Structures are given as structure tokens and as C-alpha cells.
């Protein structure tokens, strides 16, 4: 094989190897990003409005995470500056905007409980607080989807009270 053809073949091999390496790095970057929490600014604005309506003045961050043992949860920041609501991605993808708002209202209901004595923490009380700022129907459909997702059944009357 002439020297110029060997050079061209070598350059071609090097280019293919570089392309394969770059593609592999892109795939690794994509999969590692998928495993990372993703903050949601739109939901953070909704959460801020709900918190304000409930007289809560702490910052609420909202993130979509790959997995969450509780599907949707809220935790305080270690520095005490606010709270973080996390949605498990697969469940988050099933909810419409009203249900997302209802879920945020419920989680902010927990925040309200954390800051008001006697700190009697129950799911029903978090829903009672949430019902101050959202309608009952989105909470009902949220629970229906949650129980289907987790393969657990519950009683809406226990969690939301009897419809009036």
C-alpha cells in the first residue's frame, strides 16, 4: 500500500476512534444527567405562591429526582433556610398541572405543620392545610394516581374528610 494511502487509512481510523470515544462520552454525560436531580423553576414559582398564601415565608425548592422512596416528599434544608420538595420522575411524568399543584400544596402543608405548634404531623392534616389553597378534586385524582403507582390503596375520606 502506498504511503499516502496508509496515512489516509490511519487518519480515518483515528477519526473513527475519536468519534466513538466522543459518542461514548456524550452517552455517559446524558445518563449521568438523567441520574441527577433537576430543579423545576415553574413549580418553584407555584410552590412560592402556595407558601405565601399559607403564610409561609421559607424558600421552597422543587426537584425531579430519578427515585424517591416516598414518591413525593419534603425535607428541610440543613441550614434551616427553606425546604426541598422532591418528585420521583416516573410519577411526576403522570401528573397534570392541577395535580402537581395539589401535590405541592400537600407538601407545603407539611411545612406549615413543621412550623406551627403543637406539630401534630399527619397526612390528613397536611391535606387539610392544602385544601386551604387548592380544590379537592385535584387532590382526589392525585391520590388515585399515587395509589395506582405504588400499588397501595387508601381511603380518601380518612385523608380528605367527607365531601361537603
Task: Walk me through this protein's architecture.
This protein has about 160 residues and is of the alpha+beta class. It folds into two domains: about 1-35; about 40-160, Zincin-like. It contains seven helices and four strands, in the order H-E-H-E-E-E-H-H-H-H-H. Strands 1-2-4-3 form a four-stranded mixed β-sheet. The longest helix has about 30 residues, at about 5-35. The termini are far apart. The relative contact order is 0.11.
Largest sheet: 4 strands, mixed
Name the CATH class of the largest domain.
Alpha Beta
Which residues form runs of ≥5 with pLDDT under 50? 5-32
Can you say what the CATH homologous superfamily of the largest domain is?
Answer: Metalloproteases ("zincins"), catalytic domain
Structural shape: globular
Mean pLDDT: 82
Proportion of residues in extended strands:
5-15%
Tell me the Rg in angstroms. Answer: 24 Å
CATH architecture of the largest domain: 2-Layer Sandwich
CATH level 3 topology of the largest domain = Zincin-like
How far is the first residue's CA from the last residue's CA? 89 Å
Provide a count of the helices. Answer: 7
Physical arrangement of strands within the biggest beta sheet? 1-2-4-3
Instruction: List the helices and strands in order.
Output: HEHEEEHHHHH
> What structural class results from the helix and strand content?
alpha+beta
Count of strand segments: 4
Fraction of residues in helix: 55-70%
Domain module tally: 2
Amino acid at each position: 500500500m502506498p504511503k499516502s494511502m496508509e496515512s489516509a487509512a490511519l487518519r480515518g481510523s483515528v477519526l473513527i476512534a475519536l468519534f466513538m470515544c466522543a459518542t461514548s462520552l456524550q452517552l455517559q454525560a446524558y445518563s449521568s444527567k438523567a441520574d441527577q436531580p433537576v430543579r423545576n423553576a415553574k413549580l418553584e414559582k407555584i410552590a412560592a405562591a402556595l407558601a405565601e398564601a399559607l403564610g409561609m415565608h421559607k424558600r421552597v425548592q422543587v426537584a425531579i429526582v430519578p427515585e424517591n422512596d416516598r414518591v413525593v416528599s419534603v425535607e428541610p434544608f440543613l441550614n434551616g433556610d427553606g425546604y426541598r420538595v422532591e418528585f420521583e420522575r416516573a410519577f411526576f411524568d403522570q401528573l397534570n398541572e392541577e395535580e402537581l399543584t395539589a401535590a405541592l400544596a400537600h407538601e407545603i402543608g407539611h411545612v406549615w405543620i413543621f412550623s406551627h405548634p403543637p406539630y401534630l404531623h399527619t397526612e390528613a392534616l397536611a391535606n387539610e392545610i392544602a385544601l386551604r389553597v387548592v380544590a379537592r378534586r385535584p387532590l382526589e385524582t392525585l391520590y388515585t394516581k399515587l395509589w395506582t403507582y405504588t400499588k397501595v390503596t387508601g381511603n380518601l375520606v380518612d385523608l380528605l374528610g367527607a365531601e361537603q
